[in-house]
């Protein structure tokens, strides 16, 4: 027996007629009859009998029909899976990003993709940049976003965004009317800071040191989004990436350009020891689109 015989048998069982089975399969009626005879011979028993001008399946044929239907259902499942893989709608993709991106912004940017692909399992981890590079090198995640490049031989690194840090102030702050805030203006302001080992803080501190400005840290917190909460409540000022604190209205928190510019890069890290899945490729494309509004310089890959 072969698949064509099984198709002819299933179509005849479902339509109750050789002629209608032929129409469904797009072949001639004699071709279906020939397939049914060959299938019957393979089985060693009759499949149909004529009764009152109707084609009636035998008990043995009914028993076979159940298994044949299961087989074709499994085939259809394989076909659906193949379509989902081709359309990047199925699979598992794991991403690790610094807290400034992972806490809020990536959820906002990637939600439309994920809601349209319920069979795509997406895992997001919040890690510091050195740990992200380690996870990518060990092939424990598919995509890493890092503010540090990686020179590991098993990791490909691509700059996907270069952004300028911004200054955030309480809405009622005296400097809130300005279009830009100079680092020198923050000399005596209570500063809401990230933890001392945070890579972003290292960049901020270096900018203050270059200008010879002593930063007066009043509060130290683990997350940039937490900084925004303190600033919105009038506790102090800070310097953060432009993609944090987007949920706060201008009546709570004011976002201003920081001068001189204090740039940072975001790198996309991927393992190079195995090809990425189609789903991972699609997610990488969407991450590039998600960060594009904050990219101050077009960086060639």
UniProtKB/TrEMBL annotation:
GO terms for molecular function: DNA-binding transcription factor activity; sequence-specific DNA binding. CDD domains: PBP2_LysR_opines_like. Residues 1-58 form the HTH lysR-type domain. It comes from Tianweitania sediminis. The keyword Signal does not apply. Belongs to the LysR transcriptional regulatory family. Gene3D superfamilies: 3.40.190.290, Winged helix-like DNA-binding domain superfamily/Winged helix DNA-binding domain (1.10.10.10). This is LysR family transcriptional regulator.
